[in-house]
Design brief:
The complex is a heterodimer of chains A (about 220) and B (about 200).
Chain A lengths: L4 E3 L8 E13 L17 E8 L19 E4 L4 E7 L27 H4 L17 E4 L33 H4 L10 H7 L4 E6 L7 E6 L1
Parallel strand pairs in A: 2-5
Antiparallel strand pairs in A: 1-2, 2-3, 5-7, 6-8
Chain B lengths: L1 H6 L4 E6 L43 E2 L5 E2 L24 H18 L40 H20 L19 H8 L3
Antiparallel strand pairs in B: 2-3
The chains are: A mainly beta (about 220), B mainly alpha (about 200).
């Protein structure tokens, strides 16, 4: 995964590997197009989500970094990694993309349409959710403070043009700022007040490897 | 929400290199294990033989057009049938439970005569409780008397179960074992499976 920069946040401390990583939708041939005998299977391309560097959001085939499975972050021991996670589940016009899969709103979930009182609850609408998709990224095994851990209720929506009225609003601009890496809101507030564009997290150098990144919410 | 967000694909590796946690000791030599070749790195020339290959396994179902399949509600899927029955009184006799299960399966099959085969059958029982005092029932010859613990047939079934349990407890589980009926077309559940089901957890 290409880095954005090697920052020294306070100008004198350790260098930090800085990434801006966006989750985006793409279409890719995942199932085999032909069988063992070279006969076409007829299996089409699969719409999926993956991550990319926000600097190079085009699909890999077009020179970008958007590919499934996603590029790997390689971190070095004792050197902090900072990641700005960006929800870019939007179309070419900047309007939000609905979820690829049917979302049952009657289970306990982020529930963005629920208003301040019923966010992070089960909803009452039996039809699949079609609104902007809440995401939050959790890095398994990362050594992070709680506001950077990617709790299920610390989700954010994409910064789409057509966000429905009543959706969680972007939090204070400092949350999205590159200069101040930590969202100051507690995790519970993040869902309610929502850092809509993204959240930035510093992942201190963990002691073990083999960490996988999983989206939550 | 996590279930559908993860299912849609986005997941990746975060590899940490260096540090004390990096050392994997060779069990034979006690020295740090070393891969015979380098890990992939940006700018590698083609043709390098790599020995470090991170593997992520994702389990997905697809539709024939290539898109991901995910059920859109909690109702049963096409091809999956559920049948349930709540009894008027708790039962513990094996024969009664087996009879109920068979009754439910036959009912489901009768409703779907075009289905030729059952690929998977799951039976669950719920609301476990201590055995209450049995309420004796009059011999009314009811159709479901085998499932009524206080009927003559229900009592006989429970006694048979307890007799078998007592014998096996005293003389070992092998004293009375399962036998498959060899005369009819009905085949029994494989003994291995039944023993697994009986296993103390």
């Amino acid at each position: 995964m290409p880095r954005v920069d090697n920052l020294s946040p306070d100008g004198k401390g350790k260098k930090t590997d800085y990434y801006e990583i966006a989750v985006r939708q793409l279409t890719q041939q995942i199932l085999p197009p032909t069988d063992h005998f070279g006969v076409p299977t007829g299996y089409g391309e699969t719409p999926v989500w993956s991550y990319c560097s926000a600097l190079a959001p085009l699909p890999f085939a077009q020179g970008g970094t958007l590919y499934y499975p996603v590029f790997t972050i390689e971190a070095r021991y004792n050197r902090p990694t900072r990641v700005k996670w960006i929800n870019q589940l939007v179309d070419a016009d900047g309007n939000y993309l609905p979820h690829l899969l049917p979302v049952d709103q009657t289970l306990h979930w982020a529930n963005p349409p629920g208003g301040m009182m019923h966010r992070d609850h089960e909803g009452h609408d039996g039809s699949p959710y079609t609104g902007p998709v809440p995401t939050v990224i959790h890095v398994h095994g990362a050594h992070v403070a709680e506001h950077s851990d990617g709790y299920p209720e610390a989700w954010h929506l994409p910064a789409a043009e057509n966000i429905p009225p009543g959706s969680p609003r972007p939090g204070p601009s400092t949350i999205c700022s590159r200069r101040i890496p930590h969202a100051r809101a507690r995790s519970r507030d993040c869902g309610a007040r929502a850092t809509r564009c993204s959240s930035t997290r510093t992942i201190s150098a963990p002691r073990r490897c083999g960490i996988t990144i999983t989206p939550l919410a | 929400m996590t279930r559908v967000n993860v299912y849609a694909g986005p997941a990746g590796f975060y590899l940490l290199r260096g540090g004390p946690g990096d050392d994997v000791l060779d069990a034979k030599t006690g020295k740090p294990a070393v891969l015979p070749g380098p890990a992939p790195a940006p700018g590698d020339l083609p043709g390098i033989r790599y020995y470090e290959i991170p593997i992520a396994i994702q389990d997905r179902s697809f539709k024939s057009d290539g898109s991901l399949f995910y059920p859109d509600n909690r109702a049963v899927e096409p091809g999956i049938l559920t049948r349930s029955l709540t009894l008027p009184a708790p039962v513990s006799a094996t024969r009664a439970i087996a009879e109920i299960a068979e009754h439910l399966v036959r009912g489901a099959l009768a409703d779907h005569p075009h289905e030729k085969a059952i690929s998977l059958l799951a039976i669950s029982v719920s609301n476990f409780d201590e055995q209450p005092a049995v309420q004796l029932e009059l011999p009314l010859g009811l159709e479901d008397q085998g499932r009524r613990p206080g009927s003559r047939q229900g009592i006989a079934r429970t006694r048979a179960d307890r007799a078998v349990d007592a014998i096996r407890q005293r003389f070992g589980a092998g004293a009375i074992d399962y036998g498959s009926a060899t005369t009819g077309v009905l085949r029994s559940v494989p003994d291995e499976f039944r023993r697994l089901a009986e296993k103390e957890l």
